[in-house]
Amino acid sequence: MKQYFKDIFKSIWTIFVGMKVTFRHLFIPAVTIQYPDVKLKLPERARNRLYVNMDDCIGCFQCDLACPVDCIYIETVKALPTDDLGITSTGHKKRLWVPKFDIDIAKCCYCGLCVPVCPTECIVMTDVYEFSEFNRHHLIYNYATLTPAEIADIKAKAAAYEKEQAAKKAAASAQAKAAQPAGTPAAETTAKTETTPSTPPPRSA
Ligand code: SF4
Ligand code: SF4
Known about the structure:
The chain is an alpha+beta fold. The protein contains five helices and five strands, in the order H-E-H-E-E-H-E-E-H-H. The strands form two sheets. Strands 2-3-5 form a three-stranded antiparallel β-sheet. Strands 1-4 form a two-stranded antiparallel ribbon.
């Protein structure tokens, strides 16, 4: 009988010990907030979703190279000498089209390394941190502003220009060779190189 009451007392005492912390917090102001109705002010240098201002992007790949998880995908096309892409707000001349600039934000670890390396300060951290998605493919953000038709046109013109330049180079090289008299040192050297065995002869002791 004595043991019976002892057990009852022990149980009640254990409940009081367990609730001690809870009781203490009844008299301390709450530290939780009613998110999402109430939001805390973010620290000044908080790292959240990235934004790229494509008007200032020169396609230099610095951000891509700095990214430790390879979640930035950039594609560039060289502008033609007749193209004027303008200058960035930081005064850098734009020489490349940027038909593709994607960031897979699902892979991003918010290290922020891509931000300070940008020479035109066009990739920045925003204060947006609510961007969850049901489909992870929706977390690949496309920042490029060119339309598919514009991209196709730019690529076709660039390919045609490259071809034209290669043809001009080949023609100039053929012309130079034709103008070279036979038996010149250059021709001899070429002939020597062609007859040189691919492996050197064994060295004598
Ligand atoms: S914040 Fe870090 S992980 Fe995210 S894109 Fe920039 S460099 Fe890559
Ligand atoms: S570092 Fe800046 S300018 Fe260079 S590719 Fe990245 S976003 Fe564009």
